Amino acid sequence: QICNQHNAEAPNLEQVFHRMAQTEPNLDHDVSWFLLPSYWAKMVVALISFLCFANSYDGDFVFDDSEAIINNKDLRAETPLGDLWHHDFWGSKLSSNTSHKSYRPLTVLTFRINYLFAGGFYPVGFHVINIILHCTISVLMVDVFSILLGGLQFSNKGRRLNLAPKTSLLAALLFAVHPVHTECVAGIVGRADLLCALFFLLSFLGYCKAFKENKEGHNFSIFWVLVSVILGAVAMLCKEQGITILGLNAVFDALVINKLNVLELIQKLLHKDKSLENAGLLRKGLLFRITLLMSGGASILYIRWRIMGTGPPAFTEVDNPASFADSLFVRAINYNYYYSLNAWLLLCPWWLCFDWSMGCIPLIKSVSDWRIIALAALWFCLIGLIGQALCSEDSHKRRILTLGLGFLIIPFLPASNLFFRVGFVIAERVIYLPSIGYCILFTYGFSLLSKQAKKKKILAVAVFGILLINVMRCALRSSQWRSEEQLFRSALSVCPLNAKVHYNVGKNLADKGNQSAAIKYYREAVRLNPKYVHAMNNLGNILKERNELQEAEELLSLAVQIQPDFAAAWMNLGIVQNSLRRFEEAEQSYWTAIKHRKKYPDCYYNLGRLYADLNRHIDALNAWRNATVLKPEHSLAWNNMIILLDNTGNLAQAEAVGREALGLIPNDHSLMFSLANVLGKSQKYKESEALFLKAIKANPNAASYHGNLAVLYHRWGNLDLAKKHYEVSLKLDPMAPGTKENYNLLRRKLEQLQKKGG
């Protein structure tokens, strides 16, 4: 009978273990929310996260995408794969003084794969991968939140139990629809944060697997601990924040696996209590596991430090003004104010901006500044939460609050300016991971309110309303990230004091040919930041093209005075001085530009034009040759060499240069035209005709192409074809120089021939 009773109860051990696990307070008990099976919960989260950002799939490359993707040579097939491991995120050598030291080779590798599969720079594929990654991360969050909110428990069959299905679903939905994530998902450069988050979560879940066979913390799998460390390293190779998962795994181990009471442990350490050995540090292997995590983390950081080099990244004051403040007090106050603004973006993500630098947030320089209230509010809340996390008698409350604060604060530390200067004031992308902590705290707060509330459904409707508003905000913000024009204009109302916002709006307008409107925004950028050299350079360029040379020279001179190594401004100043016929000053400006940027083909091209104007033909040819050596596809430099050699009677040399140029740029119709002229003068009529016709096929509306082909036929004696092309040329450009005279000569000759024939 005893044996039969034992056998009858054996299949229900999983249920018994589940009941034992429920002896802890359960967040779901008082929460009025949807209860779905795990599979359906994940499907719902995936669908809603997809709906939030789906409209970004066909957006353009915007903002930083240009530098990280379009201008990044590491994406192209001709760049050896090995270079990815020696270059930063933007394609610069890590050893370079100008490198930002952002070492994310795995992220760049995914960009390269995108580029190869798409066969070029087509943004759709890049955007689709970002959306898929966010959906995947949001689905993983269901499992992560079920552990963080409900604890880590396994059945006797080794299946992890979800002890908080309702609250884990709510927290995952809060994460999936948070508008602050738009930059990471809709901005392709945000791929770094998404990949980092993916491996960050996999590292955490892998660490949890180490205790699959564990009932009291005595047994664990070293294999899964090491897998967790490796996944943490992979996360860091996607973005620097990834390394923080090792610290969070240690916190989770102490609080959840070993159920340590931090306050009690501190008190015992302070009093040198002999009972400390019974706290479970050694008995449950916590110290050993933490040693594995920390030694793994230290090794990863050392290797990264060796690859990066010992020098820190170089940032300017406009990138992060608080970090350049002389006063420690001003730095501390402003750093804390930045933290409060990040917290506010998590609580109320309504005012979002692609860039928060350049005066967007003026420095707090005095305690009389009313913004000090934000710091006080932040620390009042943090101290309250930390006090409850340490001192509460409810172990369940201590665990959830500590984990929530841990996931909120620890992943944010690399962006906090505490350990090193960062290159931004606020960046919405860096709170992608810390938002996990916010979701934990929000969900726990909701559960406490539900416990006290009499009308739980009203509270649930309010939370549902927040989710719905966030979904709509995500969709709106995603649409703003679809194009640079919408993105930059959306920032004008959020950060009207940000010079970079006005600069980017102006640049976008200038690229579209609206110079008058661009000037207005460039002027405002310079007004807001009188040391904004890039705005001065671009404004000077437009004024130069509008022949407002005096103001252009003043702006460019000021730009190089503020930043003496600004090569582009030196070159543009040289162009203006050349136009003002101050040739010696122009030459000096060009050489200064080349001194600061040795590989500067456009500057050599402009220097060649200066020498040509001064009839220094040998110097002009040498300058243009340098331009083509540095940039073999520099069509203008090749063309000028051919034309100069042609004009000076060096036809054989002009022909050789023309053939060399067409060998490198075979489809350039301007080169075909120039070489055709040379061949015509050399009486190589057939070859010249073929090139003229090929050039006309590529650019049929060029009056000069038809006019010069007509001259060739005229010389060749093919008068009917000459007449035809003269007429086409005059139809395209009635004022074409020389064409009308040549046409009249041809007509008189044809009339004479007709008379003779008559």
Automatic annotation (TrEMBL):
Keyword Hydrolase set for record: no
Keyword vocabulary terms for this entry: Endoplasmic reticulum, Membrane, Repeat, TPR repeat, Transferase, Transmembrane, Transmembrane helix
EC number: 2.4.1.109
Record Pfam families: TMTC_DUF1736, TPR_16, TPR_19
Species name: Chroicocephalus maculipennis (Brown-hooded gull)
Enzymatic class: transferase
Compartments, as annotated in UniProt: Endoplasmic reticulum; Membrane
Membrane-topology annotation of the record: Multi-pass membrane protein
Family: Belongs to the TMTC family.
Primary location: endoplasmic reticulum
GO cellular component: a single term: endoplasmic reticulum
Residues in the signal sequence: none
GO MF term set: dolichyl-phosphate-mannose-protein mannosyltransferase activity
UniProt pathway annotation: Protein modification; protein glycosylation
GO aspect biological process, one term: endoplasmic reticulum unfolded protein response
Name of the protein in question: dolichyl-phosphate-mannose--protein mannosyltransferase
TPR repeat copies, ranges: 499-532, 533-566, 601-634, 703-736
Gene3D superfamilies (alphabetical): Tetratricopeptide repeat domain
Record has Cell division as a keyword: no
